[in-house]
Amino acid sequence: GRVSTTYIDQEFYNPTRYRLEGTYLFPIPKNAVIKKFSMFINGKETEAELLNAAKAKKIYEDIVRRLKDPALLEYSRNGLFKARIYPIEPYAKKRVKISYTEILDMDNSIIEYLYPLNTEKFSSKPLKNVSINVSIISDKNIRTIYSPTHNISIKRLSRKSADISYKERNIKPDTDFKLYFDTNKDNMGVMLKTYRKNKDGYFFLSLSPGFSNSNDRIIPKDIIFVLDVSGSMAGKKLKQAKKALKFCVENLNKNDRFNIIKFSTEAELLFDELSSVKKNKLGKTREFIDELRAIGGTNIEEALTLALKMKKSKKRPFTIMFLTDGKPTIGETNEDRLLKIINNKNRENIRIFTFGIGNEINTHLLDKITKSSRAYRTYISPEEDIEVKVSNFYTKIQSPVLTNLRLSFKGNIRVSKLYPKPLPDLFKGSSISVFGRYSGYGKAEIILKGQGGNEKTFNIKKIFAKNNTENDFIPQLWATRRIGFILDQIRLNGENKELKDEIIFLAKKYGVLTPYTSYLIVEDEKARVVRRDIHFRDQLLVPVLAGNKKYREESKKDMDYMKSKSGSGSVRMSYEAQSLNTASNYAQKKPSKSRMYISDKEGKRVNLTKQFRNIQGRAIYNTGKFWVDSRLQSKANNKNLKINKIQFLSKEYFDLLNNTPDVSDFLALGQNVRFIYKNTEYEIYQ
Predict the structure, then answer these.
(1) How far apart are CA 538 and CA 551, in angstroms?
(2) Do the Cβ atoms of 228 and 264 come closer than 8 Å?
(3) How far apart are the first and last CA of the chain?
(4) Tens-place pLDDT, residues 455-471
(5) Contact by Cβ (8 Å): 256, 316
(6) From CA 401, how far away is CA 215, in angstroms rounded?
């Protein structure tokens, strides 16, 4: 139910040759009660204090005064668990174990769990191993499980129990771990979370079929596997593709029908018509797959035309899985004409999931095929295993529950800019995350329609908040989806000023950075300073990237990769755009993180994504000396702002903290911060 017990097991290491004394601090969530603290020194259990929020506040402030480090202030509204640890011997480890219980918050049927993982940012080095395991045992059916902060693995054990895990190596976590689960009684699990400040309304909607022990809800499907066996597939690629094909066929559901098309210079069917799994033709299928050889050209037109010609049933979802490693060389080779042929043949809007193998493929062609058919694209680099990538994807789409989804809303609200667009199909054990904007507020009816053997309709009543600023993950994830959508428009249809300007605005405001968008922001800031639209000290990325010539050059290349139709750069930009357009948590909004390393003012190598924080629905940037609020670049917001300059650690500083606790999130950033809070610009200076 709502009662949770958290068990913490941490190990600390003294890397010096000196005996040290330590103070162990852990911010305790509200309503939590410590059950057990375990740490023994020389056979004696260490004493510890449990302080409520009022007493803890003084401790937090005393530490800030003494160490001149305000980083702990973001926890100044929490209680505190404090223990003195002495001695910590040279090159020795100390293990600390704590457990606490708490009653979790519940909003309608949605239960929220939070673990303060962000405290690990105080570690001097990246942590070798970080793992979180959550077991949920509920007295009601669990519908939706969702984390807006981390990539989690979900294992559903029954309708009322599930295991969730998160694991990472060599990182310094900078985000608290948050988990939601929903126990509503609806036939379709629908979780709604809203964020609204002033007139700006954002919402997050999770759609989940829940968990079933039986297969009675699984819709029998028709699926055709279309495999490129042209000469360029010879060797390792074809060997892995054959293994992947066998995996897919052997994991068909008992009522499914299937076929295989191999193509090179010509296309050839395994069966004349779709074959039922029940007819046990898997022996012939394995033999067909074993005999596949790579030779000839690439006739995409004939292969997909043959697949789309297959006789279909209105009661069964029809899917095509298309694997290719090349551009069309036989039949129609012109991209636009080929797309027109495919779209004309695909009147029933059959899903065509594409797998591009290697870099010598036409990404624009494959992306447009998947986009027009409401499917997904996947790219497999030369270093990746085709078998693993294809089989993992097939496992996700193996069992459709609801297809051809449509969402509508009734009530005193108006929704817009929903992503992903259009909605994908819903499969067993999965969920769909939808982000959008709304105006109006109050009770509303959410209507979900789709095909599940026949037309199904779900009517769910929810409340869209008039004011709610707690779920500040929603605006930035909505912006991430919107940016991914616009990037695809630019990639596939060409750039225009309106789209480019919107990307710059959203990327700056919400801190959604790719090398492409960071390059655009830098150019925009330089131009706005020249035009005197903004003051030079309100620039967000120019000061950070001033000494990073190599990064700027690489970012400029991404402008060209956005236009190119093949090559590793084109594949990468396609992957990043789709990743942004389907991002459901903070971790997924940084697909280009691995190549966004720059040098800071001291010459240290840092990741650009670490140079900003998302606070209260917008991004705050570290420009070197100051943390600067992205809202300071908006002239409309700044027209009537009062300016209040406050010295770090002064009486006014702590008065501000005590009188307006919400500013603690900004103050925790550092000693020099400029931000907007309730029509006042605050400048904290050292």
Answers:
(1) 22
(2) yes
(3) 47
(4) 899 999 999 999 999 89
(5) no
(6) 10
